[in-house]
Amino acid sequence: MKYQTQKIAMAYFAVAMGLFAIQVLGGLLAGFIYISPNFLSDLLPFNVVRMLHTNALVVWLLLGFFGAAYYLVPEESEREIYSPMIAYLQLILLVVGTLGAVITYTFNLFEGNFFLGLQGREFLEQPFWVKIGIVVAALMFLYNISMTVLKGRKTAITNVLLLGLWGIAIFFLFAFYVPDNLALDKMYWWYVIHLWVEGVWELVMASILAFLLLKLTGVDREVVEKWIYVIVSLSLFSGVLGTGHHYFWIGTPKYWTWIGSIFSAMEVIPFFAMVLFSFTMVWKGGRNHPNKAAVLWSLGTAVMAFFGAGVWGFMHTLHGVNFYSHGTQITAAHGHLAFFGAYVSINLAIITYAMPYILKREPYNQVLNMVSFWIMNSAMAFMTFVLTFAGAIQTHLQRVNGEDFMDVQEQMQLFFVMRFGAGAVFVIGALLFIYAIFVPRKELLQKSTTAAAE
Amino acid sequence: MATETEQDGPQEDWGPLSGLSGNPIMWVLIASELVVFGAIFISFGFARLSEPQVFAEAQDHLNRLAGAINTMVLLTSGLFAALAVHFQSRDDTLKTRLAIAAAIALGAVFLGVKFVEYADKFEQGISTETNTFFMFYYLATAFHAMHVVFGMVLLVIVGWKNSFENVVTGTAFWHMVDLIWVILFPLIYLMR
């Protein structure tokens, strides 16, 4: 760690990991409710659990991105963060907002109150005051990071990162625009999450991945920069109009079926480019970086993002297919592998890379971390396969044969049990990762330096 | 910031994109565009297979003469763009800019003819929802027309900042717009 203010990242990563734990435990609970539908139904209904599982994910990924930015921008810009104070205030604001949203949601406080109560738009239901808080926090962050970048060295990595981060803030503003017409409401609703995960988040991911590969493999910056420009062009080209794949059946004009199908089918390309990019860099790179766990996660995120977002996304993105598969467990399979492969893994990669430096814990005894990598990836792969099979059956029984929704759910029980098992294993992997990052080997390593170097 | 850093020598680091003239990212865009339009044309072909009568009947509502005029207009415009590259290679800025201006003007003529076509269709009450043929007609032609507009903006920029690389890059995009039209016109307007 060359710059003192890179330490800010640690606070963000710590909160992110806390939410990660809550998220996967929430997921486990939701998975159990699939098996035993009345479990906690009065105390914590399924829709609340699902919201917690989903939004905790989105919030911790964003916190991870912020942390990653605070870690890598000083190194790229070759200067300290403009204002550490703003950075910490921003984190406090985000934590207060998150807690506010969760408490309001769980107990449904201030029902009907415009400013304090829930806003009723799924996943964007945060009370108005929380939304304002998010915008203020985003502005603080962008001001802080932009000032740092503007005053320092400008690189392709920081340019792309800034573009992505500004995009995140700008597209969130559509959370405030709620047309009365339900079709229009849904249309703008997608502007937030779709243009995030299939647009600007890809830019953030590409720049973090580029930073990691630059550091881990020692390839020339010039080569890395060319790759990310190509990846970014492909992401924006395919992802923006790819939003159309959410507009097949919500009441928008029919031409969206074609625009959505064609452009979103191309979304697989930037993810494939990321696979080529990461493997080429690792093969070409001369540096044998001792942080093997970070290399593993960097390659893992490219591969799993390609399968989860690329292949599993393509599987049901053509409207002729989606007509049958829409809203079945196929979607759940895709959602889980895509979010894990792309955005969870890129966050865990940068955390794995940065934490040993922040905690001054070189040379990285990270066997536990690598074990957690394989546990999480195997569990997620298993869960994805199970949900895909469940989805295929559900599509056939429900959409082709026209059986009743609840009857079909009962016939998928076996798959839900297996998914719960995969989820439980995943939780073990996640907790192991968190443990491996924060806890072991603070002093011991000093002594075993010579042994580890061999 | 405004001054382009002239990259001298071949850009060998761009891998397979190195051999292409102009900015390599333009070729990423061009390849992506060709994939998209290719997909639209293939989809059109499949849709036509399932409703041959509807497509044949609807196609007779199209103004083939306007399409033919536009083909000539756009190809001539492409000629001026190519001339611009030729003049720029001799560092003749004035002639380069005149050629680019001519290319842009013809692009505007193309859009004018397109506007007349659309106005006529709307008058007949034909919209994207009329049938599958017209949905594709509007989708493909409007999407193409947007590229004409974008190409014109790009030509203005490269005419202003007329380094050789810029002119070649802008022209490459403009030729792609030509190329797509040359396939689009027979496929949607003429093929029986």
Secondary structure layout plus pairing:
The complex is a heterodimer of chains A (454) and B (192).
Chain A: H1 8-35, H2 46-77, H3 84-107, H4 128-151, H5 156-172, H6 182-217, H7 221-242, H8 255-265, H9 268-284, H10 292-315, H11 319-325, H12 329-358, H13 367-400, H14 405-411, H15 413-438, H16 444-447, H17 449-453
Helix pairs in contact in A: 1-2, 1-3, 1-15, 2-3, 2-4, 2-12, 3-4, 4-5, 5-6, 6-7, 6-9, 6-12, 7-8, 7-9, 9-10, 10-12, 10-13, 12-13, 13-15
Chain B: H1 24-50, H2 52-59, H3 64-89, H4 93-123, H5 132-160, H6 164-190
Helix pairs in contact in B: 1-5, 1-6, 3-4, 3-6, 4-5, 5-6
Question: How is this structure best described in words?
Answer:
- The complex is a heterodimer of chains A (454) and B (192).
- Chain A is an all-alpha fold and 454 residues long.
- Chain A has helices at 8-35, 46-77, 84-107, 128-151, 156-172, 182-217, 221-242, 255-265, 268-284, 292-315, 319-325, 329-358, 367-400, 405-411, 413-438, 444-447, 449-453.
- Chain A folds into two domains: 1-153, Four Helix Bundle (Hemerythrin (Met), subunit A), CATH 1.20.120; 183-441, Cytochrome c oxidase-like, subunit I domain (Cytochrome C Oxidase, Chain A), CATH 1.20.210.
- In chain A, helix 3 runs antiparallel to helix 4 and helix 10 (292-315) packs antiparallel against helix 12.
- The longest helix of chain A is centred in the middle third of the chain and has 36 residues, at 182-217.
- Chain A is globular.
- Chain A starts with 7 loop residues before the first helix and ends with a helix.
- With 192 residues, chain B is mainly alpha-helical.
- Chain B has a domain at 64-190: Up-down Bundle (Four Helix Bundle (Hemerythrin (Met), subunit A)).
- In chain B, 77% of the residues lie in helices and 0% in strands.
- Chain B has six helices and no strands.
- The longest helix of chain B has 31 residues, at 93-123.
- Chain B is globular.
- The model of chain B is unreliable at 1-11 (pLDDT under 50).
- The interface between A and B is medium-sized, with 20 and 18 residues.
